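Input sequence (320 aa), recorded before submission:
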Amino acid sequence: MDHPLETGMLQDESGSPITGAARVGIELRGVRERLGWRLTDLAAQLRIREPYLAAIESGNLALLPGAAYQAGFVRTYAQALGLDGEEILRRFRAEGSGVNAKAELSFPAPVPDRGVPTGALVLLCLLLALGGYGVWYVHTASQAKLAAAVPSVPVDLAPLAVSSKPPEPPAPPKLDASAAPSMSSAQPPLAAGAQTISPAPPTAPPVPAATSPVTSTMPASNGKTIQATGDDWVEVKDSKGNILFSKLLHAGDSWPVPDMPGLTMTAGNAGATSIFENGKAGAPLGAASTVLHDYPLTAATPGSATTVPAPSTTPPAKTN
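Predicted structure, token format:
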């Protein structure tokens, strides 16, 4: 339902008539007040900030964010009051409010293409070539004048002048074939019955025989195998204290015990160490996380039975 605008003369507080865009804005405010709507409620309904609606009612559209928003806000506000949005927008424009006033754009004029003529370019290159030739000619003439100004070496000092040509090496002396004694005449005559001794042929120096590196072979296993069921550091020594094996074993790792007398073993985790003998698994050699010292793997002397003492274990150190 459209609501007509008041067409009577509107006056301000001093009695002066109100004209221009302010008159249109006051007429819009009058329609809103007759409908009993508050400006705050209308701003929330239209999703337009209240200061913008107040600027429309006061006819000060310069407070709106831009020309594109001015026309949209005026049209939406008029339609919300039941008025013809296009007519209200036309009246704002007629009153000179500047709604949707298009700004005059000033574009720079294109600069004309001012290329260098071909003839001028050729002439410039020719001048540069002539200038370069002149500089070279002047420099060469000055160098020739300097060379001509140097006096020649006097005759009495000529023998002291250093020759630029290196002296030729002396020719080797020629040997006179008639003066050279022959090998046969230089040798003394041999006595009757003496044998001619021919020089011994040179002999090649003796070639040393190839030597193969000495490798230490580990004796075959005696049927025992060290088996790890967890992380376990194992060290095996012989009867003289030499270390034969030292390695961190993991679960599933094993090491065959060689057939040597007096082998002992030290294990860092007795609970994860067991001895397999002829394929039969043995029990763990101690409690978990305890150190096993000098466990006998083979007998001290060949042929004697291996005596397995109670394992000497050391509990791990406690950390605070």
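Checked by second reader. Residues 41 and 85 are 20 Å apart (CA to CA).
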